[in-house]
Amino acid sequence: MGQVVSERPIGGNGSGPGMNGHGGGAIRSYAPATGELLGEAPNTSAEEVRAAVARARRAQEAWGALPVEERCQRVLRFRDAIVDRTDEIVDLLSRECGKPRHEALLHEVLVAADMATYFAQVAPKALEPHEIKLHLFKHRRSWVHYVPRGVVGVISPWNFPFQLALRDVLSAIVAGNAAVLKPSEVTPLIALKQKEIWDGAGMPEDLFQVVTGYGPTGAALIDSGIQMLLFTGSVGTGRKVAAACGERLIPCVMELGGKAPLIACADADIERTAQAIVFGGFANAGQVCVAVERVYAHREIHDRLLERTVEITKGLNQGDPGKEFVDVGAIIFPPQIDVAERHIKDAVDKGATVKAGGKRAPGQGQFFEPTVLAGCDHAMTVMTEEIFGPVVPFMQVATEEEAIRLANESHLGLNAYVFSEDTDHARRLAERLQAGSVLVNDVLMNGALPDAPFGGVKQSGFGRVMGEDGLRQMCDVKHINADRIALGSKDPTWFPYTASSYSWFKRGMRALFSSGSFLRRIGELF
Ligand code: NAD
What we know:
- The protein folds into 3 domains: 45-256 and 467-477, 3-Layer(aba) Sandwich (Aldehyde Dehydrogenase, Chain A, domain 1), CATH 3.40.605.10; 260-450, 3-Layer(aba) Sandwich (Aldehyde Dehydrogenase, Chain A, domain 2); 491-523.
- Helix content is 40%, strand content 18%.
- It is built from 17 helices and 20 strands.
- A 7-stranded mixed sheet has the order 12-13-14-11-10-16-17, sandwiched between helices. The protein has a 6-stranded mixed sheet with strand order 7-6-5-8-9-19, with helices on both faces.
- Nicotinamide-adenine-dinucleotide is lined by residues 13, 155-159, 164, 182, 184-185, 214-215, 218-219, 232-234, 237, 240-241, 255-258, 289, 386, 388, 414, 456, 461.
- This is Aldehyde dehydrogenase.
- Keywords: Oxidoreductase.
């Protein structure tokens, strides 16, 4: 097995080298697949974070004043620079995250390029001021304007370090804000690469800043005078981050963990469902917030589906993505393997069977075999807690009702999946699932749909990113109201308050808001 893969402290973000909030020293980044030291990044202090935010604020003033079309054109230049440097980014992603090159290309670089394109295409229309038709006070007119908030803080995780960070950074920037990114301490080099590409593309240098560091650097970002925070990470950290934002009354979006259920109905296409379970469970070695984390298979197809899933799983090619084209790469750091082992042991102790995988893979680096468990139920943690590793537990259900009930029996609600040949029927089941997104006959792909809102319910978080609403959310909503018809020197509702004006308004209210006939309501006035 590999040696050290990261110096991120195990089990939290409160102690360890450089963890006292004063910064200093450096973060070392290691390749999960080989244990090789890849490089170092600064451990940014609270003071340096504040200085970065102050620089970003100054840069934002000019940027926010540009027409949105101009901002979009410039963001597309940055997108072009990303596309031009695809190989270099893919290479670093596969080394620093241990992810297969296909996934680095398709799930990170391509998705980021598409998001930049989408935001640039829709922003001019989505952020245009528009008039609201007032239903009662017709003598006035109202408009809604979208005003950049200022500096948006982005705190991101390690599992999709390229696209998740840019999703938030670019939507903030297109909307006229500056962005300061605190990337995961496990993948700092990718974030520094993003900054290098940004600067190299001639973008305003201070508008996008990267402050690498551990948890305290993230905490310092929240405390540095930012106007909004976009956080993506675990439920535990999200709780602390949301509390810190609440303390400072900073609006925040929380993109947290998931425990996506997949319901396989009796009429599901077995081959597609099995392929989807394997892809949805083992892409990025299962380290995906929307990974298939539990399967509820109808008893009529359970055995055939399980058998085919196991067969496909056993055919996966796992290894060092730096050396060859592999299907499944490495696990980011040792605690993720410990978590997978703990869930598997708990499940097996309570009667589950390991049908494929189940253990660390031999050789250099951090690898865990893609694992399929059968005979699982909700007494096992593998069905109820986020695994975030390559483990897919199966549970047989007698009815769809049972599957829906169990799928909803979770404190998390990010994604859910329904497989059935009857798409309309599956959509009706989807409506009953407690999740931010439900996909019918597909998995994972909504993470790559910038057109649609993305986010969770329950402890999977709150707020939405992506889609036109996601863009608008990067702005303060300003309402401007002006006169259409001037009412003279003063309005009738202003001072003085008299008995006769009170009586007149009361009759007017009854005429407007009672349910009688038109004539009766008019009669109220006299
Ligand atoms: P994490 O919560 O450990 O860390 C996330 C980020 O928060 C890191 O940058 C970390 O340095 C920072 N951080 C830690 N303590 C902090 C503090 N006190 N104040 C401010 N920032 C702090 O998560 P992770 O292990 O990097 O990522 C995995 C988790 O992220 C999983 O639970 C996964 O489901 C979730 N995730 C969610 C989504 C989504 O869109 N909902 C996407 C990807 C990952």
